[in-house]
Specification:
Elements: H1 2-26, H2 39-47, H3 54-58, H4 63-78, H5 83-91, H6 93-102
Amino acid sequence: MEFVIILIYLAVIAVMIASWWVIFTKAGQPGWAILIPIYNIIVMLKVVNKPIWWLVLLLIPLVNFIIMIILMVELAKVFGKSGGFAVGLILLGIIFLPMLAFGDAQYQGAAAA
């Protein structure tokens, strides 16, 4: 039974890494950046057009939850998605991140934000 749980866990991790990789690539950033801790956050801040100093805010307990919500809303915006999609990214990221990555969403950059 534990083996099945581990396999499911690894499959979820693989889907999330692949999703972020494609999202970064769509945004014109290196996909491999998702594999590097801290740097992946810096790249995500670039994608959503936020200053790099926001990284400090992500290191503060409780504040980081609010900042991540803001970042998910901005991620939806820069890909031309609605607020409802942003709620999906926040609450059901395992479903909505692959939809964003492998769907027809195109990166619109700062113009969309």
